Amino acid sequence: MTTPRIRADLHKIEQNTRTLVDRLSAVGIRVTGITKAALGSPGIGAAMLRGGASGLGDSRVPNLARLAASDTSSRRTLIRSPMLSQAACVVGVADVSLNTESVVLDALDRAAAGRNRRHGIVLMVELGDLREGIAPADVPEAARAVLRHPSLRLVGLGGNLACQHGVVPDDRNMGVLTGLVDAVEARHGMSLDVVSGGNSANLGWALTTGAVGRIDELRLGEAILLGLDPLHRTPISGLHTDAFTLTAEVIEVAVKPARPWGDRAQAAYGEPPARTGSGTVRQAILAMGQQDVELAGLQPPAGIEVLGMSSDHLVVDHGDHALAVGDEIDFGVGYGALVRAMTSPFVTTVEHSGPPVPTTDRAGAVHERRAG
């Protein structure tokens, strides 16, 4: 089997989704499964739906097109403000989109009218993280602007925190969103279907506050895929954190000096990695680099230390592991590493549904290459 490759365990993804859906349903919140880290994989999207997700969301129109081609029945949401140039494509593959700009609303209205359909709009509110969002004071008038478009339907309000500046969801900022929902409904004599509180970073708040207010949806990607709380990158109790495994092949094994020699300047990606110690190391090179995966999110097995990475080479100290050219090493991945690996044209994705297994923290393995 080709390497590098990333294996996605659909059973574990389904289990993670079901666990989170069950926990959140107890407080009146449904889950939209986010597939953007998985390149809009229909298989992964289907696993989320089997786990009870009420719909799927993605930030890229081509990813939504992949999902739409495999399943026309589930609700699809574009979770990034639409590009003006893609308005016609957006209404073709998404039922709902998150929006902030009036000129984009105009374009979506025209595109939806051309398809004889109504497109759902969730207005995003700025709650302090300084990414996308309308100022709270401007939300009622922005809602009026949506209602003036005959081919658009105002389905709700939403917010997003933690992605840009790490602002933590809490009773205060979520309370602002709840208050705006009440104000919009009272002002315009309507009922909103969706109050999308945020992403996986909202989980801790939602499951402990005791006062979720009007929040009735969360957009969950990282928590489902990796079983982690994005605020601190800590495992979420009861979830699998090893649904993805990235495998690379050894192309060189040698005993080398612990430190480089000669005058030193910039390396391929800026400052060179620190090499300390004395004597020698048992060094191996794997055929995987920055074009394939983000170094910071790569999690080697116990007993293997990453020494550095260039575009196409990953250098490790393999310690007491006996390695030969052609052997493979399995790595865990963090969110950034997962996104890079899933979007690299050089990494093969393999999806499988294994039997039910106990929840584990992370699987890492070194193994000989298997034929096929």
TrEMBL record:
Region (Disordered): 350-372
Keywords on record: Isomerase, Pyridoxal phosphate
Cofactor(s) needed for function: pyridoxal 5'-phosphate
Domain Alanine racemase N-terminal: 9-225
A Pfam family matched in the record: Ala_racemase_N
Protein name stated in the entry: Alanine racemase N-terminal domain-containing protein
